[in-house]
Amino acid sequence: MNATKGMQRLVRPALATMMMFAGAAMAADPLADLPFRLTGGTPNLDVRLRYEYLHLDNPLPAPLTQDTAQQVSVRVRLGYTTAAWNGLDGQLEYEGLDTVGDDRYNSLTNGRSNYPAIPDAQVHEVNQVWLRYSGLPKTQIKYGRQRINLDNQRFVGGVAWRQDEQTFDATYLNSTLIPKTTVQYAHLDRVNSFRNFAINGRNTDQLDIDGHLINSSTAILGKRLNLTGYGYFLDFGTVPGAAVGRLLANSQTYGLRATGSVPVKTLTFGYTLEYAAQQDWRGGIDKDHRYGLAEANVGWKKLKATAGYEVLGGNGVTSFQTPLATTHAFDGWADQFLITPTEGLRRAYASFGATVAKASLTAIFHDFSADAGPHFGNEVDLLASYPVLDNFTLFAKFAAYFADEFPVVAGQATNVQRGWLYAEYKF
After folding, report:
1. Residues 79, 84, 85, 90, Cα dihedral to 10°
2. Could you say which residues of the chain have pLDDT below 70?
3. CA-based nearest residue to 236, from 244, 245, 248
4. Taking a C-beta distance cutoff of 8 angstroms, is the pair 133, 21 a contact?
5. 60-88: per-residue pLDDT in tens?
6. Which in 40, 90, 330, 376 has the greatest CB count within 10 A?
C-alpha cells in the first residue's frame, strides 16, 4: 500500500470521529489545552538485534540448493502516544527492519529462493497509527492500525516474535461495563502480516479482509474459573489454491474457553479447556472441523511444569486453520506447521520453566501427528533469557524438529534446526 494514501485512508475517518467526540465534550478540556496534550505524551522505543540460523537436512526439495540460511537483522520501533484530551489520545509508531551482511536466506521478497526461508523482509513502514476514545463509561474505542491480541493469541495475535510484527487496520471496542466481564469487538479491514504472500500475481504482506472478531470473557469464580466465548468471521475474498488458499479460505469459528488456577499450600495448579468449531463462510472452501485443547500446569516458587494435548481437525482435503494467530508460540518454534496440514494436527506437549538467579529457562517437547493418519515428528524447543538491565535483555533460543513419516517441506520429510541469538532494548 502506498504509505501516503494508506495514512490518509486510516486517519481521515478517525479525525472526523475525533472532532465529533471533542465537540460533545468541549466543556471538559478546553481547546487551549490541546497543544499541551499533544506534546505532553509518552515516547516508546524498541530495538532488537538478532542473528537467526536455519538448517534443513538433505534431501532438499526444489528449488533449494542450499541447506543453511543465516540472517543478521536490526529492527527499530519508534513511537509516540499523546496525552488524553476530552477522552481522546492517539499513537504514531514507525517500524524499520534492515539486514546486515549478505542475503544468505530467502525473505520471500529478495529473490533468494534457493535458500531456506527466514520471512523477515527489509521494511520501513507505519507500524501503528490510531486514535482512541475513552470518554464512555468503562469503554474504549480505537480506530486505525493497531495491535490486537485476544486470549492466548491462538486465534488472533501480533506474532511479536518475528521482527516485522502483525498489525491490523481495524475498529476495536473494549468494554468492562458489565461487572466481571470484558467484551471485545473488532472489525478488520486489513491484515498487515509478518510474511509475504503471492496472491493474484503480486507479492504482498497486506491482506484485505472483511473480518469480525467477537470475544467475551467473564470471571465466574474469580481466578478459579474464567469463561470466554468467541466468534471469528473472516472473509479474505478470493485467494489462490494450495496451502495459502487453505490458510486464507473464508471461515467462521465459534468457541468456548475455560481457564483457572487454584492455590494448594505452596503449589498453584492451573488448567485450560477449549473447544471450537470452524466452517466455511461466504463461499469459502467447504469444511467442518473441530479444535480442542486440554492443558494442566503446576507451579512451585520459581518452577513451573505444563502438559497438554491439542487437536486441529482435518480430513485429508481441508483442515482447521488459524490465519491470524501467533502460531509460532504453539506449533513448535521450528515453524513447520504455520499452515495446518490437510490431515489435521494433533500435538501432545510438555514444558518446564525455571528462574535461576535472574535468568529464565524454558524447555518444551512436542509430539506431532495427523488428526487421522501418520506420525509427523517430534520437536525440542529451548529458551534462555537474561535481563542485563531493566530495559535490556539477552536471549538464546533453539528449536530442533525431527521428521518421521510426514513430508512437511514440499514433498520431502526433513529434519530442521533453528537457532537465535538476540538482544532487545525497550522503553
Report:
1. 30
2. 1-27, 241, 405-413
3. 248
4. yes
5. 888 899 999 999 999 999 999 999 999 99
6. 376
